[in-house]
Amino acid sequence: AAQIQLQLGKHDQAITSFLRAARSSDLRYYQQIARLGISSTYLLNRQPDLAANALNGWRSLFAESPFVSAAEFLSAFCQFESGQQSLDDRGRLLSALANLHWPSESGTYGDLLKAEAWYRLGFSDVAIETLQSLAQSSDSDWFRQRALDQLSNLLIAEARMDMARPVLQEVIESMQPSVDPDLRLRLANLELATGNHRECLRLCTEILSDPGSASVHGEALKMMGNIYQGRGDHYTAALCLSGVLPETTVPAETKGPEMQ
């Protein structure tokens, strides 16, 4: 049940199920799988301290276990994320990644964590390949969406905008009709960064027409205001920057080149 809940993105329920499994069985195998699951779930939610607590005493629990490399990886990643990211922390995490054999019993979420770890260590190309492979092979909609989400973020950080655009469009389409507003805003930001102002305005207008995206309405209006400011349309820019949506947000096509 915990694995299914995790694949559906129901993390709180997954942790509860993992805890129940660990407490209801004396078999080390189930306790090990549960500990790995709880720690991984916390790491996926960027809570390394809680993830480390879930692994407390792991060396004795995983002694001579086929899952020991997975426990070592999670422990090293927790330390790296929680600490000063010293050379020793980096070396330990890199060694753990090199020796990692993620157990099939623990599902594909290990690939998400591996990709994040590789990226945090500066191995962007390895992280990209890992996420691309996971997005293509995962049977779980949640894991596939999470992989595409991470991949788009990574590609934008690496200034690979032409690669990031179709990835973002794909994950947004897959989440219809309940799209994370941060993803819509990320795509609008990408279009702004690449000079595609008309498309940026169109996307911002979509965001502003959706009450469910209210958390990013301010950022969308700010983007629009900056575009109009750059075009010399100071009145419309002032409306946007003061939080007011102008009546016409995407101008009609003109014969001349678009002002940037």
Q: How is the topology of this model organized?
A:
Elements: H1 2-7, H2 11-24, H3 28-44, H4 48-54, H5 58-61, H6 68-82, H7 87-98, H8 109-120, H9 124-137, H10 141-157, H11 161-174, H12 181-193, H13 197-208, H14 217-230, H15 234-241
State the gist of this model.
The chain has 260 residues and is an all-alpha fold.
Query: Count of DSSP helices?
Result: 15
Q: Sheet with the most strands? A: none
What's the count of strands?
A: 0
Q: What integer value in Å does the Rg equal?
A: 22 Å
Q: Estimate percent helicity.
A: 55-70%
Low-confidence sequence ranges = 251-260
Q: How would the global form be characterised?
A: elongated
First-to-last CA distance: 53 Å
Mean pLDDT: 87
Based on secondary structure, the structural category is: mainly alpha
Percent of residues in beta strands: under 5%
Could you state the order of secondary-structure elements as H and E? HHHHHHHHHHHHHHH
Could you walk me through the main structural features you see in this protein, from its secondary elements to its overall organization?
By secondary structure, the protein is mostly helical. It has 15 helices and no strands. The chain has helices at residues 2-7, 11-24, 28-44, 48-54, 58-61, 68-82, 87-98, 109-120, 124-137, 141-157, 161-174, 181-193, 197-208, 217-230, 234-241. The longest helix is centred in the N-terminal third of the chain and has 17 residues, at 28-44. The radius of gyration is 22 Å and the shape is elongated. The termini are far apart.
